[in-house]
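Support request, please re-run this one:
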Amino acid sequence: MKRIFFALLATLFVTGSLAAGAATPKQITIKMNALNHSGEHGTATLTQLNGGVKVVVKLVDTPAWAQPTHIHIGVCGHIHEAPEYPLTAVRNGVSSTIVPGITLAALLDGAYAINVHRSAKDLPHYVACGNIE
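Re-run finished. Output below.
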């Protein structure tokens, strides 16, 4: 009986230790929500690479023109106005960018959001946003 007790205790200790020191994921997918009645929504997938993070944004119901896209400090609805990291503009619903010199861990440790603007001529008008969490 003592062996079973100590085996369970050891299992709980090891499991708790692993959970507390869990590694940063290599990839996350976040939900991109429509803003300002745009109807544009989808996902953004962030993947850790050597030397940077690959960000792929996929949206539906997008217009024909290019839409500037950025990572901003803050969360959707409360972002720092100046972009922290520029991303490739969304075109035909897709954007793919490798952002050098950052890590997924750093993005997850801070408060960051991906924002898509209506157009280069209408930057204050956001059409989609997703919190990196």
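Confidence is low (pLDDT under 50) at residues 1-20. The two ends are 44 Å apart (CA to CA).
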